[in-house]
Structures are given as structure tokens and as C-alpha cells.
Amino acid sequence: MSNLSYSYVESGIVLNISSYGDLKKLNVSPKHFAVFGEAFQFILDEIDESRQVPSRSVLTTKFPSLDVTAADAADVGFFSGQLKHQFMYRKSVESANEWVPKIKGNSPQIAIEKLIQSLESITGTVEEDIELYDEGNLSRLTDYTKKVAQRKDRSLGMLGIPTPLKTLNRLGVGWMPGELYSLFARPTVGKSFMSVKVAATAVKQGYKVLLVSTEMPVKSMSMRMDTFLGKMMGYEFSLTKLRRGDDGIDLEKYEEFLGQLNSKNLLFPHHLGFDALSVSTIRNLVRKYSPDLLVVDGVYLLSDDSNRAKWEQNDNLFKGLKNIAMAHEIPVFCTTQAGREAVDLFQPPKLNQVANGDALVRASDIAFAMSKVEDEDNMRYLYYMKQRDDAEIKDRSVLKWDVDVGDVQELMQEDLQSQATRPNVNF
After folding, report:
1. What domain count does the chain have?
2. What are phi and psi of 271, to 5 degrees?
3. Do 97 and 215 sit in the same domain of this protein?
4. CB 318 within 8 Å of CB 360
């Protein structure tokens, strides 16, 4: 922390504010002040009412405890930086003092994660930033030229990260940086299966993927990934046999396949326990490993240590994932579960049957729901509950898959019509 006192730093901002050209760029608020928050709020109110900044004489008269020695010591920009440092220090100490009694009795890993979660919320209150429209114009030109180059360089000729869905890939736009994609369904319908497929498709194209599951241990995810990537790379391994250790897996081919894997492109975090697995934990992993794509299977099981109502906690989980996507400029694909009231596995769950479903859809750029197809065990309906503004997507499509060998395809209407024996499904 700076050696400058709270009073001196805050006085420097309040008394020098008239010399600062654009108050919005200062990016501070009364909550950052420990001593003179009321004085800063007074300045804001005066600007709103009279469009003028109160003079130093007015301020010192109304707030006589202001340290006038700070009036000409440095500019407001310097003092605002000091203010934020002091705010972070103050809140960190408060948070640590608050959490020490709570983390007693927990394992060191869980205790550290819980403290990180608390400190993350402090960081968020300081890192509020505003960019004016004209400030990013050159960067947008750069972004556009990069997109053009990306389309030319990629063999698939598409923007973003390839998806396992023909509907999206045909639009020429895959999983896009800064966007949140969500899938919800009843248990046993196949959410985790789709999560692994999404991750595997990106890994096969050379992208780095962070796959977080609140339900499956690392070994289970790894075996599923073996079947998916194996299928994509010309091998075929039975998930059932891998799980059980049954005979029938060609060991030479399995060894050959494993030797071709680039382990650096796929990251599985080891569970610290459900109590420690939170949005903050995931955010720290993203910061550390910089993946191209984040996949979170089972958002509903992420922890939230706040005392807020359950609906508000869920709301914050979805917003947190969207913030990760935007802050780190990566796509995020997540799944969550419909409640027990959604008993019909053959109908898409309604939003009121999903934990805070409305908030999930609001936070998502594209939202999917999934249900089984009656009398077709290897089929699923995929419903597009929310689409991009400019996307021309049907309300529903059909997925055909084989869980055991790790294969899933989105069938278009022409695919169904071309099959010798057409399944009893329709669009």
C-alpha cells in the first residue's frame, strides 16, 4: 500500500477535480473513498445540478477537514491510482478478516479457493472501465482484417471455433470470442456428452480447450475424450470397454492414438471439491492457462458463497461466465440442468423448469435445449431457444449419436431423407 494517507490522497482528488478535463475517465466513485466519499458525492451532485465543479473555497468551507496541502501536490490522475490501490488494500484486509473464521476446519486448498473467491469480488469493483465509441475505432479495423485473414487461413473457411453443429457451421460463424452458449436438459439426456463433443471438435482443429465438469472426475472425462478424438482421427474405441477393462480394445492402436495427442491443447482441472469450484476458480484458471475455448459442464453445481437468495446466486453464475467470455475474449459453452418438474424427457424443458432459466437465456448469445426422441434411443432433438440476431436457424434440429464410440452428428432434413430407413423423426 502507498505510504500516503487516505486523507491526503482523497483530498488531492477532491481539491484538484476542477482541473481534470473528463471526470468520467477518472473511473472512481464515492465507494472507493474511506474518508471523503461524501465530499466526492457532493461534487457529482453539483455537476448534475449546475454543470459546474464547486470551487476549492466552497469545498474547504463545506468540508473543513480536507487536507489543503494536497491541493497542488500532484494531478488527479496520480491520486486516483493511489485511491484504487488503497481501496483494494482496505477491502482485502476486511475480506481476510471476515473469512478467517469461515475457513477454519477446511482443507488448505478449499480455504485458499474460498479466499480467492472473496478477493475476486473486490477486484471486480475496481476494474470497472468505460471506453468511448471513438476510442476503439482503429482496433475494430484491426479486428476486421484479422477476421478476414482467419477465414482465408482456416481450412473450414469459417469465423470462430468450429462447432459440432452443421446449422451453425453453415452460417460460417462458429463459437465466437466474448459470447456465451448454453445448453439445458433433463438428467440422462446427454448434456455431458455434448460438452465433451464440443471440446473434442475444437481440440481436433488445434484449439486449446479448458473443460470443467462439476459432475465427472478427470479419468471419466479423459476416457470420453479418447472415444471422441479417436473417432475423429480414424480410430474407434468402445467407451464401455475402456471403463470396464473388457477385452476387445486393440492395444497397439490405442497406444498409437495416445501417442498422437497434443496434451497441451486440452486442460482438465482437478477437483478441489464442489465447495471450492466456483466462477472465481474458473476465472483464475482462464487467466493462468489462456484457453481458446472454455467448456463448463454443470453450471448448477458451481458454488456461490454469498448470502444472496438462490435465484440471485444462479443469476450471478451466468453473468460471471458471460463476463469471463467478454473479459478474456473467448467463447464459453456451458450446460445446466432442468428441475425435477420437467419430467418429460421427450419434450424440451421450459425456462421456468431450469434454475433461473430466464437469466440464463438473457446472458447467452445462443441458448439450446435438448430432449430425447421417442422410440429412437440414438436420437435427440436440439431446440434453438435463442439465436443471434442475424442468424437464420430453424427452431429444432435432430442429433444422431453413438455414446459408446463417441460420435454425434446434427442431421439436416436432406440427411434424413437420404437415409435408406428414415427414423420416425421430423423437424
Report:
1. 2
2. -65, 135
3. no
4. yes
Range of the domain at 77: 6-104
Q: What is the pLDDT of residues 72-117, one digit of tens each?
A: 766 777 788 888 888 878 877 777 677 666 666 666 666 666 666 6
| Residues 60 and 182 both lie in one domain | no
DSSP per-residue codes, 99-128: HHHHHTTS-HHHHHHHHHHHHHHHHHHH--
d(CA 41, CA 284): 34
Q: Are residues 179 and 285 in the same domain?
A: yes
Both 192 and 96 in a single domain? no
* DSSP state, residue 50: H
Which of 396, 427, 403 is CA-nearest to residue 413?
Answer: 427
Statement to judge: residues 158 and 263 lie in one domain: yes
Query: What is the CB neighbour count within 10 angstroms for residue 403?
Result: 15
pTM value is 0.65
Task: Name the burial class of residue 396, with classes exposed (0-12), middle (13-18) and buried (19+) by CB atoms within 10 angstroms of its CB.
Answer: middle
In a domain? residue 124? no
| Domain final residue pick, 69, 104, 139 | 104
CA distances from 256 to 200, 251, 259 (A): 18, 8, 5
Per residue in 282-328, pLDDT (tens digit) is: 888 888 888 999 999 988 888 765 555 555 666 678 888 988 998 88
